[in-house]
Automatic annotation (TrEMBL):
Residues 20-231 form the Nucleoside phosphorylase domain. This is Uridine phosphorylase. Signal peptide: none annotated. The keyword Glycosyltransferase applies. It comes from the Bacteria. HAMAP family: Pur_nucleosid_phosp (MF_01627). It catalyses: uridine + phosphate = alpha-D-ribose 1-phosphate + uracil. NCBIfam families: deoD, PRK05819.1. GO terms for molecular function: purine-nucleoside phosphorylase activity; uridine phosphorylase activity. One of its GO terms (biological process) is uridine catabolic process. Gene3D superfamilies: Nucleoside phosphorylase domain. It comes from Flexilinea flocculi.
Length: 239
């Protein structure tokens, strides 16, 4: 690890990162990817336990670093990676709760767009709202990869929420079904906004970890370990 630290949150140099960073919320998921998929993986960041690694996947240099939970957290890391560490693409690989009734546990959701209940866009001081969307090239490659592997996936809008334990409960979240929203997570909208503002690329792919309507859930260990299909899609499409 290079000891040079140019931000309070990431303790290495720009050259320690690859052009593409895979970004799970959970630092242990970052470690798992580094240990199971990357060769010559090197720990490049561990400030606040936000583990970041750089290594090689099938000869391709790739980094993986956690975002932490929520838009303020991914907002910090994605801003710094894009604007201070010269990273070109960030692919979020997260867990999400199903809103769409046809989704099953472990299905993949590719986030074409990300609605949000957050005020994150207010920071940019432009009147109106912004429609956060994925990079089309990454999106197309993710769809093709899911198709060619015969994976169960859906492509469409997701909801990035500021609140995990919302006062209105499941029924409030399920209102988003009226607009065809597929699933809820907590980071993609901020990632897409930071990418757009920086002129960089972003995509969020999620694995369904719980079904909001019937209460089916995966355990924390399963969330950490069992998202292989999504991880392999992200590793494959990374440029
Ligand atoms: O599994 P990750 O990537 O952390 O994603 C989801 O899980 C967390 C909530 O449990 C939030 O960060 C949400 O977006
Ligand atoms: O943000 C999230 C992630 C997984 N499941 C949920 O219900 N919400």
């Amino acid at each position: 690890m290079n000891p040079a630290s140019i931000t309070p949150h990431i303790g290495c140099s720009p050259e320690d990162f690859a052009k593409t960073v895979l970004m799970p919320g959970d630092p242990l998921r970052a470690k798992l990817i580094a240990e199971n998929y990357l060769t010559d993986a090197e720990l490049v960041n561990n400030i606040r336990g936000i583990q970041g690694y750089t290594g090689y996947y099938q000869g391709k240099r790739i980094s993986v670093m956690a975002s932490g939970m929520g838009m303020p957290s991914i907002g910090i890391y994605s801003y710094e990676l894009y604007n201070m560490f010269h990273v070109e693409s960030i692919i979020r690989i997260g867990s999400a709760g199903a809103i769409h009734p046809d989704l099953q546990l472990y299905d993949i959701v590719i986030a074409q767009g990300a609605c949000t209940d957050s005020n994150y866009f207010q920071n940019f001081k432009i009147r109106g709202s912004y429609a956060p969307i994925a990079d089309f090239e990454l999106l197309s490659k993710a769809v093709e990869t899911c198709k060619s592997r015969g994976l169960r996936y859906k492509l469409g809008n997701i909801l990035s929420s500021d609140v995990f334990y919302n006062e209105g409960g499941v029924q409030e979240t399920l209102q988003w079904r009226k607009f065809g929203v597929l699933a809820v997570e907590m980071e993609a909208a901020a990632l897409y906004m930071n990418a757009a503002r920086a002129g960089k690329k972003a995509l969020a792919i999620c694995t369904i970890s719980d079904l909001m309507e019937n209460g089916a859930v995966t355990t924390a260990a399963e969330r950490q370990n069992a998202f292989n299909a999504m991880m392999e899609v992200a590793l494959t499409i990374a440029e």
